[in-house]
């Protein structure tokens, strides 16, 4: 069999571990031929490919980013959803000209949706969930998330000492797109006092009261972790908005930090390397068994798979009743809501 692998959407630590997991299993265990498709789905259209061998897949396990490059899939998405049948024929032709028996697509929600559409075109595909945001439906966790949480937690840890020295309020904004997973986990692991998530919303009075009560209790500083997806009424970033409002309404000196792409860059954590390795291996196994149109997943602590049609177009968000939110509230951490 000949298989292709591509990565699409924003990068995440662990993509290379996954490419290696798929590729080495396919080559060494199943005797398949493997090609890498460069720069996301556009590489499929332009047949921008590279042969992958066991030696070429060595030395990449601990590398951040993706050796294949990645891209947002706007043009490809337009073509695949176009009213003009010719566009879809061009996509199918590219796949067949590469003589692929299966295409493995590593990506987040958008990628899984596109991969599902390829499956509807009767192309053999397998999706592998990837994103620091941890919001892919159909899996309990995505690789990249653990690394991002580690980085974000370390950032919050570092804010404590400077916040305490200056008796300041520190607002840190974390990534996650529409989901609050990184902020919830890093906020709880880093000991934030207020955690604001898009899924829960917020009441500014509750945020202000919490900060004032902490100061009255003799706590000299406060840490606010806010997800980038939290909606604010101005055109500011959430961190800037909350820092400005908190300083204006409490009189406490307040500073903001936007952690940004640091959360996505660099070497994957051991957990993400292992998850990518296992998911990649399972993708190769599904191809060998001829089970296409599925996304590999981690469900109930087991590696498994789900139909792409059940995943496409859905988001996995933090539930207000999730254990970590409930436990945070029980300990007096404010989520900005009652
Ligand atoms: O999906 C991962 C992510 O890093 C989000 O957390 C963030 O909102 C987005 O990608 C940033 O995307 P871009 O790379 O297009 O700036």
Question: Which key features would you list for this structure?
Answer:
alpha/beta; Rossmann fold; single chain; 338 residues; 4-stranded parallel β-sheet; 12 helices; elongated; 2 domains; 7-stranded mixed β-sheet; binds 6-O-phosphono-beta-D-fructofuranose; 17% strand
Topology:
Elements: E1 2-7, H1 15-29, E2 33-37, H2 41-45, E3 49-52, H3 74-81, H4 85-97, E4 102-107, H5 109-120, E5 125-129, H6 145-166, E6 169-174, H7 181-189, E7 194-196, H8 204-216, E8 222-227, H9 238-250, E9 254-258, H10 270-289, E10 294-299, E11 302-307, H11 308-311, H12 323-330
Parallel strand pairs: 1-2, 1-4, 4-5, 5-10, 6-8, 6-9, 7-8
Antiparallel strand pairs: 2-3, 10-11
Helix pairs in contact: 1-10, 6-7
Can you walk me through this structure?
This protein is α/β, with parallel strands linked by helices. It folds into two domains: 2-144 and 268-311, Rossmann fold (3-Layer(aba) Sandwich); 146-264, Rossmann fold. It contains twelve helices and eleven strands. It has helices at residues 15-29, 41-45, 74-81, 85-97, 109-120, 145-166, 181-189, 204-216, 238-250, 270-289, 308-311, 323-330, and strands at residues 2-7, 33-37, 49-52, 102-107, 125-129, 169-174, 194-196, 222-227, 254-258, 294-299, 302-307. Strands 3-2-1-4-5-10-11 form a seven-stranded mixed β-sheet, with helices on both faces. Strands 7-8-6-9 form a four-stranded parallel β-sheet, with helices on both faces. Strand 4 (102-107), helix 5 (109-120) and strand 5 form a beta-alpha-beta unit. The longest helix has 22 residues, at 145-166. The radius of gyration is 22 Å and the shape is elongated. 49% of the residues are buried. The mean pLDDT is 97. The protein binds 6-O-phosphono-beta-D-fructofuranose (F6P). 6-O-phosphono-beta-D-fructofuranose is lined by residues 10, 108, 131-133, 175-177, 228, 264.
């Amino acid at each position: 069999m000949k298989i292709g692998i591509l990565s699409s959407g924003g990068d995440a630590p662990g993509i290379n571990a996954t490419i290696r997991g798929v590729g080495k299993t396919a080559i060494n265990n199943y005797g398949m031929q493997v090609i890498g498709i460069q720069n996301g789905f556009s590489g499929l259209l332009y047949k921008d490919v590279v042969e992958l061998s066991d030696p070429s897949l060595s030395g990449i396990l601990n590398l951040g980013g993706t050796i294949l490059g990645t891209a947002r899939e706007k043009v490809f998405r337009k073509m695949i959803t176009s009213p003009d049948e010719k566009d879809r024929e061009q996509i199918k032709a590219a796949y067949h000209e590469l003589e692929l028996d299966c295409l493995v697509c590593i990506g987040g929600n958008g990628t899984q949706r596109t991969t599902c559409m390829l499956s509807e075109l009767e192309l053999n595909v397998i999706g592998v969930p990837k994103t620091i945001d941890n919001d892919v439906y159909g899996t309990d966790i995505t690789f990249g998330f653990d690394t991002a949480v580690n980085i974000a937690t370390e950032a919050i840890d570092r804010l404590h000492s400077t916040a305490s020295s200056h008796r300041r309020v520190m607002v840190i904004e974390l990534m996650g797109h529409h989901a609050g997973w990184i902020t919830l986990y890093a906020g709880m692991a880093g000991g934030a006092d207020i955690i604001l998530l898009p899924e829960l919303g917020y009441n500014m009075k509750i945020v202000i009261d919490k900060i004032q009560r902490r100061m009255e209790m003799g706590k000299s500083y406060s840490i606010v972790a806010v997800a980038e997806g939290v909606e604010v009424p101005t055109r500011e970033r959430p961190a800037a908005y909350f820092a400005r409002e908190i300083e204006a309404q409490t009189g406490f000196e307040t500073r903001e930090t936007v952690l940004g792409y640091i959360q996505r860059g660099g070497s994957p954590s051991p957990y993400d390397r292992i998850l990518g390795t296992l998911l990649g291996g399972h993708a190769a196994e599904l191809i060998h068994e001829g089970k296409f149109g599925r996304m590999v997943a981690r469900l109930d602590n087991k590696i498994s798979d789900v139909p792409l049609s059940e995943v496409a177009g859905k988001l996995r968000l933090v539930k207000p009743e999730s254990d970590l939110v409930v436990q945070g509230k029980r300990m007096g951490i404010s989520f900005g809501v009652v």
